[in-house]
Automatic annotation (TrEMBL):
Belongs to the metallo-dependent hydrolases superfamily. Allantoinase family. InterPro entries: Allantoinase, Amidohydro-rel, DHOase/Allantoinase_Hydrolase, Metal-dep_hydrolase_composite, Metal_Hydrolase. It comes from Microbispora oryzae. The keyword Translocase does not apply. It is an enzyme of class 3 (hydrolase). Its EC number is 3.5.2.5. GO terms for biological process: allantoin catabolic process; purine nucleobase catabolic process. This is allantoinase. Homotetramer.
Length: 437
């Protein structure tokens, strides 16, 4: 008799890279060992039959600001990874700024890992940082296992993570090209940014025009072409960026880009308060439509949260003074699914954008898809259940979110990490390594 599997999960809506199908997913030693028919006899120590509920691969979110150590009162590894698991996200990659010290050398990376060890409910990787003066640290960070290094082309909002000018950007890309490292860039041209003329959202939006994003994207693309380096544009909000990205990719430039749930599901016309403030800003509905078209086209590699939380007292009513960042780590899947379904997209599309695409971008072949050999990161998703967002009931640290009170469709019922159900009390997350490891 064949050895029983550790777990078999059956669903009539298993979302695989080939599309939806009725199937049984068999797990052994934390990995998907077999994909069988829904009715196949597969002996198992544990089993679940989901019927018509969907089974998705765990989502991969490569843009999360955890902020620990140093600003753990903004967000910490325990709270952030609980929110991730509750939202169907089984792997995150943490951004290098906002923590103290910022992750700009291997020693700071060690500090970050020590802060995270034993506290993570999902798997966690780390980005390094590229700032003025740390050029010699980029290769050591790569060798220490970061997935790449992030830079800002405009002020980051925290003084310990200053931005790169054009010569600094060229130097970083030249250094990274020598070992095929990856640079990810917050792309806004500071010369085209201005202080808001007043405290309202329209004034804030005018202070960060689309042209600022477009010019910065063109600069990154030009220097990536010159140096041969890999580059990635984070959180694209402006439709004006799409043609420069399309042109650069057609010319063979090694450049990719992402967008975020808030740019796809919210619009400037519906902003009601500073919980919506982020940089670059949420733009008009017509701009949002263009982002959806670019996502469907494949110009944007996927959708990641840019979960950037802060204490409630930093979200003051004045849009000029409020901290910029949308807290959405737990809500990305239902938010995107609600909007995607209304536009005629299916679960396979959402999975491609929020699991497969980010996993491929980060170089995580064991994540982001239900296929034999992959990690058994699985999510039970009820695509028809509706709910009203209550920010006080979410797992992230501070009760602030632009989605508070919104009606969304799609509920995560259960999450497995490498075949073990996440119970929100026992951290089982592991560290993920990129770079040279």
């Amino acid at each position: 008799m064949a050895e029983p599997f550790d777990l078999v999960v059956r669903s009539r809506r298993v979302v695989t890279p080939e599309g939806e199908r009725a199937a049984a997913v068999a797990v052994r030693d934390g990995r998907i060992a077999a994909l069988g028919g829904y009715d196949d006899p597969l002996p198992a120590a544990d089993a679940a039959d989901l019927g018509g509920l969907a089974l998705l691969p765990g989502l991969v979110d490569t843009h999360v600001h955890v902020n620990e150590p140093g600003r753990a009162h903004w967000e910490g590894f325990a709270s952030a990874t609980r929110a991730a698991a509750a939202g169907g996200v089984t792997a995150i990659v943490d951004m290098p700024l906002n923590s103290l010290p910022p992750t700009v050398d291997p020693e700071a990376l060690d500090v970050k890992r020590r802060a995270a060890r034993g506290r993570c409910h999902v798997d966690v990787g780390f980005w390094g940082g590229a700032i003025p003066g740390n050029l010699a640290q980029l290769r050591p960070l790569h060798e220490a296992g970061v997935f790449g290094v992030k830079c800002f082309l405009s002020p980051s909002g925290v003084e310990e993570f200053p931005s790169l000018d054009r010569s600094g950007l060229r130097a970083a890309l030249t250094e990274l090209a020598a070992f095929d490292g990856l640079l990810i860039a917050h792309a806004e041209d500071p010369a085209l940014l201005a202080e808001p003329a007043g405290p309202t959202y329209p004034e804030f939006l005018r202070s960060r025009p689309q042209e600022a994003e477009r010019r910065a994207v063109e600069q990154v693309a030009e220097l990536a072409a010159e140096t041969g380096a890999r580059a990635h544009i984070v959180h694209v909000s402006a439709a004006a960026c799409l043609e420069p990205l399309r042109r650069a990719r057609a010319e063979g430039v090694r450049i990719t880009a992402e967008t975020c749930p808030h740019y796809l599901t919210l619009s400037a016309e519906q902003v009601t308060g500073p919980a919506y403030k982020c940089c670059p800003p949420i733009r008009e509905a017509a701009n949002r439509d263009a982002l959806w078209e670019a996502l469907a086209e494949g110009l944007l590699m996927g959708v990641v949260s840019d979960h950037s939380p802060s204490p409630a007292e930093m979200k003051v009513p004045d849009f000029a003074a409020a901290w910029g960042g949308v807290s959405s780590l737990q809500l990305g899947l239902p938010a995107v699914w609600t909007a995607a379904r209304a536009r005629g997209f299916g679960l396979a599309d959402v999975t491609r954008w929020m699991a497969e695409g980010p996993a491929r971008f980060a170089g995580l072949p064991g994540k982001g898809a239900i296929r034999v050999g992959a990690d058994a990161d699985l999510v039970v998703f009820d695509p028809d259940a509706g709910f009203t967002v209550d920010v006080a009931a979410l797992h992230h640290r501070n009760p602030v979110s632009a989605y508070d009170g919104h009606e969304l469709t799609g509920v995560v019922r259960r999450t497995w990490l490498r075949g073990t159900a996440v119970d929100f009390t026992t951290p089982r997350g592991r560290f993920l390594s990129g770079g040279a490891r």
